[in-house]
Amino acid sequence: MADGYLEKRYEEVFGAGAKKTVVKHNSLDTLLEKNRSYRGYQKDYVVKREMLERIVAVNTKIPTGKNQQVLRFKLVTKDTGAEKVLENIKLGGMLPELHLPYQGTEPEAFIIVCTSAPETKIIDIDLGISMQSMLLKATEMGLNGIIICAFNKAKITEAFNLPYEPLAIVAIGKGAEKIKLVSIDESESRAYYRDENGVHYVPKVKAEQIIIQ
Description:
This protein has six helices and seven strands; from the N terminus they run αααβαβαβαββββ.
């Protein structure tokens, strides 16, 4: 192809001096590595409802068992009851001595995931697919999150007058923590931990040791 052909065609289409827009795409491996469970968030970053809507929208593209599509989502922001969620959840169960999240780093946006049909094994699988997909979307958007299963179901249902049973809660925000993966042998502890500088470490068993020979 002649030298400068693409540049000339670009100017013909968009005009002389037009700036080229470079779109950066995150690979799946990159998104998966960035998608960690954050328990502390930046208070100066406000997650808006439309951001949560974009995240929940992935559920119109993912598979569900028997194509039932029974999951429903309650969006909660700082202005629409985040404090009610915070009162009824627990984070960092394996590090109780730290009383996470630290004061001033609490999440302030949530997606309450409900089921409109009686819970079954298939619906639980759908739940996992849904939450992982939503967190990957949040990561793509430059946000972070965490899946919360330790919550007071009755009080959350009452606080938000939910018509369906809540199964889990996904917190969304801009993470304020440093998290690192640690490669371990199968025989080592999987418990996550933090060092004296507050860095959060997540052990992961080596790939070759999770494959059955």
